[in-house]
Amino acid sequence: MEKWDDNKAWFLVLPVFLVVAFSAIIPLMTVVNYSVQDIMAPGQGIFVGPEWYREVLHDPRLHEAFLRQLIYSFTVLAIEIPLGIAVALTLPSKGWTVSACLVLLALPLLIPWNVVGTIWVVFSRPDIGLSGMTINELLGIPYNYTADPMDSWLTVVIMDIWHWTPLVVLLCYAGLQAIPEAYYQAAKIDGASRWAVFRFIQLPKMRGVLMIAVLLRFMDSFMIYTEPFVLTGGGPGNSTTFLSQFLTKMAIGQFDLGPAAAFSLIYFLVILLLSYIFYTVITNLGKGVAK
């Protein structure tokens, strides 16, 4: 019996292809086009080749913003991931308290980014804010996030931890609840300690959700814009100016569309590369021990 190919099914993929092309491919190609042109006016551009890439890569302001971004991203990851695991381990596993704890934990995630920034503007003000007045007057530590770069930096980091650690907690809690009870029963029979249960059962079983948590938080921390913009406006000086704010200033404030487009592509590739490294490391972590 002669077989023949029916390719009509490919038409079912066409709507998805059109949506992806409209939402991702066309904007990306537009940015690539802008990155190799000097935009003089709408519809007027001069081809400059890789000049904007060279200029952006040698810009010391970009180097400083990139370093600040890396320190910030790794700092929040180093705090939020262990803290999220620790909180998830302390949550109850049965009863009405489970729902109550999960709802309370999810509350910061429901607050819009600009509102989070506004809350921390009021909360941290040294004259009327609860935390600002407590630190200044009760603890006697001079604190002013609008004038001191270290204070502003710490305030942005603490704000991010308050806002996004609940996401890590919820992911870890879901991973813990998915572990079959038989593992705990076997550990109890063997007389395993609490640390051994965590090290050899809970942590390996949470690898999948931890990978999601690390990738989500890393990519999101690299895209942070609204909260520090509302809280500090990128200052004092450039102490809290991260890559996204640097890009916005370049594209909208200075209207340097060519360099901004080149920077956008470099920005995208950096996130892609670092996310791939994280994914590879977490995926291969523990394989040697398993063998």
UniProtKB/TrEMBL annotation:
It is found in: Cell membrane. The lineage of its organism: Bacteria, Pseudomonadati, Thermodesulfobacteriota, Desulfovibrionia, Desulfovibrionales. Residues 66-278 form the ABC transmembrane type-1 domain. It is a multi-pass membrane protein. It comes from Desulfolutivibrio sulfodismutans. Belongs to the binding-protein-dependent transport system permease family. Keywords: Membrane, Transmembrane, Transmembrane helix, Transport. PROSITE patterns: ABC_TM1 (PS50928). Gene3D superfamilies: MetI-like. PANTHER family: GLUCOSE IMPORT SYSTEM PERMEASE PROTEIN GLCT, TREHALOSE TRANSPORT SYSTEM PERMEASE PROTEIN SUGA. The chain crosses the membrane at residues 12-32, 70-91, 98-123, 208-226, 260-282. One of its GO terms (cellular component) is plasma membrane. Coiled coil: none annotated. This is Sugar ABC transporter permease. GO terms for biological process: transmembrane transport. The keyword Zinc does not apply. It comes from the Bacteria.
